[in-house]
Write a structure and sequence with these properties.
The protein is mainly β. The two termini are about 25 Å apart. It is about 0% helix and about 55% strand. The strands form 8 sheets. The protein has a 6-stranded mixed β-sheet with strand order 1-19-20-21-22-2, with no helix packed on it. Strands 4-31-30-29-28 form a 5-stranded mixed β-sheet, with no helix packed on it. Strand 23 (about 265-275) and strand 24 form a beta hairpin.
Length: about 375
């Protein structure tokens, strides 16, 4: 599911990308009554006792990250369609890996990499585990405790590929102030943290960042979240993204426009196709969708006027054909918003709040969570 990283500081200086629209200057309006469509949702039944957590797709296969009722609790299912899902053999190594819950599973070709965590220890902090393999088997890559834990550690947020190289996103204590955005790269089976302080991912006393999602962007990456600006007598939370051309940087910060002049604005999820990235998040309780290109950033026009539940988060958008699709929480259920050219349509989504979405084989697959915390996997034909 989408994981909110702890607030971290960021040094901007001359690295802030100012091309295109700037924060507070965007006048894009919302569409109060977009065209409507209908979708036929079907529940995807997993083996008895398994609850869906996360999703990933690549080259005709879909992976369902699930959790079971007994040890080892993390489970992976893979297959070309809902009727052909089979369990992937897992090999946990560290004690907490047997209890872990998936935070994100990523696919690149036939490769599978994942981040999971389980709370433990005297303070109930997460004990992190990283996993790697393919559909024939995925094994934990046991790491020394200080790689992702120990003094100064923040939470991990997810994993994505820069080209063919997996990169983990999280947070770590800054050498200057607060927390830095942190990334880890892998050599062999060992992960190592890339220093952040003094880079665009570093911290200052006047700006704090929250990078909560990482996604592939060609040979590089896109991170999305927000920047909290601290001024005497005021605090302002603005949407932001960070781009890199490779797995270990260099990084550039992209300040995004906010719809309206007031209200908290944050990005929750993102997806990139080539150099074009579509981002989704929340501005003052309403859905926001942005487009980021190498030389511009803007709100997408005519975004449906969807009022979100309190503390709602938006899963990463997906692509269906040439269209952008966003699944957002709406009351006790969800709504599917589809942008074709310059026109938006909306359709009822599945029951529950959406937490993960993928497009696979002409279908939309969605994991939802109900008020009791129970999760369900749904699919609907959309192509």
């Amino acid at each position: 599911m989408s994981v909110r990283a702890v607030l971290v500081g960021v040094v901007v200086g001359a690295t802030v990308l100012t091309a295109g629209c700037t924060a507070g200057s965007d006048a894009t309006s919302r569409t109060p009554t977009p065209a409507t469509a209908s979708l036929d949702w079907a529940r995807v039944d997993l083996p008895e006792g398994l609850a869906p957590v996360t999703l990933a797709t690549s080259e005709g296969s879909v992976v369902v990250g699930a959790i079971g009722p007994s040890r080892p609790r993390p489970r992976l299912l893979v297959g070309p369609d809902a009727q052909s899902l089979r369990e992937v053999p897992l090999t946990p190594a560290s004690p907490y890996a047997f209890e872990a819950r998936w935070f994100q599973v990523a696919m690149h070709g036939d490769r599978i990499d994942a981040v999971a965590g389980a709370r433990g220890g005297a303070h109930g902090n997460y004990r992190w585990s990283t996993w790697s393999g393919d559909a024939s088997g995925v094994a934990e890559q046991e790491q020394p405790f200080g790689v992702f834990g120990s003094y100064g550690a923040g939470d991990l947020a997810g994993i994505a590929y820069a080209g063919g190289a997996p990169v983990v996103l999280g947070a770590w204590q800054s050498e200057q102030t607060g927390m830095d955005i942190a990334t880890w790269t892998r050599k062999g089976d060992r992960w190592s943290r890339v220093p952040s302080t003094g880079t665009p991912l570093g911290s200052t006393p006047r700006e704090l960042v929250d990078a909560r999602t990482v996604t592939s962007r060609g040979d590089g990456l896109l991170l999305v979240g927000s920047v909290t600006h601290l001024e005497p007598g005021s605090v302002e939370v603005m949407p932001a993204a960070w781009t890199s051309d490779g797995p270990d940087g260099p990084w550039t910060r992209v300040d995004l426009p906010r719809m309206g002049d007031t209200g908290t604005s944050e990005v929750d999820g993102a997806r990139c196709d080539g150099d074009r990235c579509v981002l989704a998040g929340v501005t003052d309780g309403h859905l926001s969708v942005w487009e980021v290109r190498p030389d511009s950033q803007s709100q997408l026009a005519g975004i449906p006027a969807l009022e979100l539940p309190e503390n709602a988060t938006i899963p990463s958008p997906v692509t269906v054909g040439d269209d952008d699709v966003v699944v957002a929480p709406d009351g006790s259920g969800s709504a599917v918003l589809r942008l074709s050219g310059t026109s938006w349509t909306t359709a009822p989504g599945p029951q529950g709040a959406p937490t993960w979405v993928v497009a696979h084989g002409g279908e939309l697959w969605v994991v939802t969570t109900d008020a009791r915390g129970s999760t369900t996997l749904w699919r609907s034909r959309v192509a």
